[in-house]
Backbone:
């Protein structure tokens, strides 16, 4: 609002001159997609046609050989840990300040979560602490970006490359 101009409430010009939406968020195309999903009779089963098509389209779009659909971030992390072949006795370094979803996949695979200390200002893992926790059994580092703070990546790139 420029100085001297009147509010729309008091007869000044309106800021928004186009009509607001109708509130209708979905149309016939979305209803058709929903109908097809419901009619496949496998709504809660991962191998439904819709999910298979989504995975195929996604893999093609990113030019990768495989795509796995998951139901949550927890399931996604579990799939990633399993796909890397991490198993009983292997160690995965991660943050002690995280959602349980970061730990479930590690534990379900029989691996051992190893907690790195966190930086007191960002609450993300301290790269020096990570390096100090690497052992011959360390197989991976699961980085957690916490509360909108990105983890410090550059020191992490200098860690041994045999850690996934």
Residues:
């Amino acid at each position: 609002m420029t100085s001297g101009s009147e509010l729309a409430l008091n007869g000044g010009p309106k800021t928004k001159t186009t009509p607001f939406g109708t509130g209708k968020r979905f149309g016939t195309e979305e209803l058709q997609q929903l109908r097809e999903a419901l009619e496949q009779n496998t709504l809660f089963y991962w191998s439904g046609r819709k999910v298979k098509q989504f995975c195929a389209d996604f893999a093609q779009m990113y030019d990768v050989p495989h795509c796995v659909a998951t139901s949550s971030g927890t399931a996604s992390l579990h799939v990633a840990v399993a796909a890397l072949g991490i198993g009983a006795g292997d160690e995965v370094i991660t943050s002690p300040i995280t959602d349980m979803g970061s730990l479930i996949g590690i534990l379900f695979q029989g691996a051992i979560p190893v907690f790195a200390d966190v930086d007191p200002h960002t609450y993300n893992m301290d790269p020096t602490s990570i390096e100090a926790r690497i052992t011959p059994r360390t197989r991976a580092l699961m980085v957690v970006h916490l509360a909108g703070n990105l983890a410090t990546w550059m020191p992490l790139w200098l860690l041994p490359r045999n850690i996934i």
Summary: The beta strands are 91-94, 112-115, 138-141. Residues 91 and 138 are 4 Å apart (CA to CA). The chain has a mean pLDDT of 87.
